[in-house]
Amino acid sequence: MKICVIGLGYIGFPTALLLSKNYEVTGCDINEDLVKKIKNKIVPFFEPGIEDLFDKTQLKAETHPVPSDVFLICVPTPFDKEVKMADLRYVKGALESIVSVLVPGNLVIIESTITPGTCEKIAVPILERSGLKVGEDIHLSHCPERAIPGKTLSEMVQNDRIIGGIDKFSADLTEDIYRTYVKGKIYKTNIRTAEFVKLIENTYRDVNIALANEIAMLSEEMGINIWEAIDLANKHPRVNIHLPGPGVGGHCIAVDPWFLTENSINATLITTAREINDNMPSFVVSRIKRILKDHGILNPTVSVFGVAYKANVDDTRETPALKLIKLCEKEGWSVRIFDPNVKKFEYPLLSLEKAIDGTDIIIIETGHDQFKDVLSNPDIRSRLNNKIVLDCHNIIDKSAWKKAGFSIYTLGDGSI
Ligand code: SAJ
C-alpha cells in the first residue's frame, strides 16, 4: 500500500517515518529546501529518536503529492491573530493539491488541527471536485495528533488515538493504518466529535494553566509561595493544579482554544483563560520592576535566558519570550538574549558570556535543563553587574546560587 504524507513538519515527518516501517511512503511538502534536506538524509529538526529512525527507514520526498492509496494531511493550521480564528489555508491547499490524483478507493486522513465542521463543510466539497463521492467512492477521516513536542515519537506510538470517520468504513480503514505503529488504544467516533475532542484537550490544559497563573499572581499579592501551595494542594486526591509560568507558547495550547471560541458567544471562561495566559509577560515585567526598585537599579541591562516556548525544545512558535522582550525594550531597558537550544529567532541570540556581560538581572524565561547550573563557573559569574535572578519556572537550585552570592526570586514566590 502507498501512503502520501502531506506536510513534513513536527508531526508529518515523524508520522511518515513511523509509517515507512510498513508502507511505501512519500512525504510531500511545498518547502523545496525541506524536501531537498530529506532527500539528502538531513534531519530537519531536533526531536529525541528521530535521527535514528530516519537512518533506518526509506522515506521518499517530493514537492507534489503522488498517486497513492492513502493521503495523510499534516499541514499546520496557523492562527489569524487579527480575528482570532483558525486560518485553514494550508489545509485547503493540501486538499486541493490531491484532487487531481484521487482515484476510487482512496482514503484521506486529516491530522491537522481544525475547527469542528471543517471536514464536512470544507474538506468534502474540495475532495468532490475530483468527481468522486466522499463516503461512496473515497473515504475520509480525522485523526488529530496528540504527541507532545520533546517526546513526539514515543507519544505517537504510546498514546491512545481518536479517529473520527465520515462513516464507519472510513474510520475502520483508518484504524488499520494507525494500528501498524500505535500501541495505545484507538477510539472511533464521528468526524465532528473528533475535531472537537482535539480542541477541548488543549483547551483543558490552557484553562488549567491560566488558573495556576492567576493564583500565582494572587500569591504574590498575599506573600505566599505558590510553588509550595500548589504542591500541598495537589496532595488532595482530586486536585491537579498545573504549573504557573511566564506565559503559554507553542503552536497548540496558545492557539487552539481560539478555534473553539471563534463561532461562539458562550465561551467566556476559555476566552478569559487565554487572556490571562497572554498577559503573563506583562506580569513578569511588573515583577522585574519591583525587584529592580528593591535593589535601587535604574536603566538596567536584562538578560533573558530561554526563548524556546518550553523547556528543552528548539521551537519558538508563539513563545511568550517575544512579548517579554518587546515589553522590556518598551521600558527602555537593554535586553540580551541567550538560548543554547534555539538557532533562529527574531532577535540576535548571544553566547552565554556576551549575554551576561555587565547584566543586572537574569530572567530564566524557559526552563531548559542547561540553565540549572549555568552560572556555576566563577569566571562567568564575575561578568555580572548585579547577581540577581528571576526564575520563572522554579527550576534552579536556590541554596547553591544563594551561596554564590545571588539574590534569587521565583515567579509567584510571594517575596516582593
Ligand atoms: N505550560 C505551563 N504550565 C504547565 C504546562 C505547560 O505554563 O503546567 C506552558 C509551557 O511552558 C508552554 C505551553 O504551556 O509554553 C504549552 O506546553 P505544553 O507542554 O503544555 O504543550 P505543547 O503545546 O507542547 O503540546 C500540547 C499537548 N497537549 C496536551 O497536553 C493536552 C500535546 O499533547 C498536543 O499534541 C500538542 O499540544 C498539539 O500539537 O496540539
What would you note in describing this structure?
The chain is of the alpha/beta class and 416 residues long. 39% of the residues lie in helices and 15% in strands. β11, α13 (320-330) and β12 (334-338) form a beta-alpha-beta unit. The protein is elongated, with a radius of gyration of 24 Å. The chain starts with a strand and ends in a 6-residue tail after the last strand.
The 3D shape can be described as elongated
Could you name the ranges where pLDDT drops below 50 across 5 or more consecutive residues?
none
Taken as a percent bin, the fraction of beta residues is 5-15%
Main sheet attributes: strand count, strand direction, barrel closure: 8 strands, mixed
Order of strands, widest sheet: 3-2-1-4-7-8-9-10
Mean pLDDT: 96
Distance N terminus to C terminus?
A: 63 Å
Q: How would you classify the helix and strand content by structural class?
A: alpha/beta
Number of strands: 15
Total helices: the number is: 16
Distinct ligands, ions and cofactors found in the model: ligand SAJ
Keywords:
416 residues, eight-stranded mixed sheet, five-stranded parallel sheet, 15 strands, elongated, binds ligand SAJ
Topology diagram in text:
Blueprint: E1 2-6, H1 12-20, E2 24-28, H2 32-39, H3 50-56, E3 60-62, E4 70-73, E5 79-80, E6 85-86, H4 89-99, E7 107-110, H5 118-127, E8 139-142, H6 152-158, E9 161-165, H7 168-179, E10 186-190, H8 191-222, H9 226-233, H10 256-261, H11 268-278, H12 280-294, E11 301-305, H13 320-330, E12 334-338, H14 352-356, E13 361-364, H15 378-381, E14 388-391, H16 398-403, E15 407-410
Parallel strand pairs: 1-2, 1-4, 2-3, 4-7, 7-8, 9-10, 11-12, 11-13, 13-14, 14-15
Antiparallel strand pairs: 5-6, 8-9
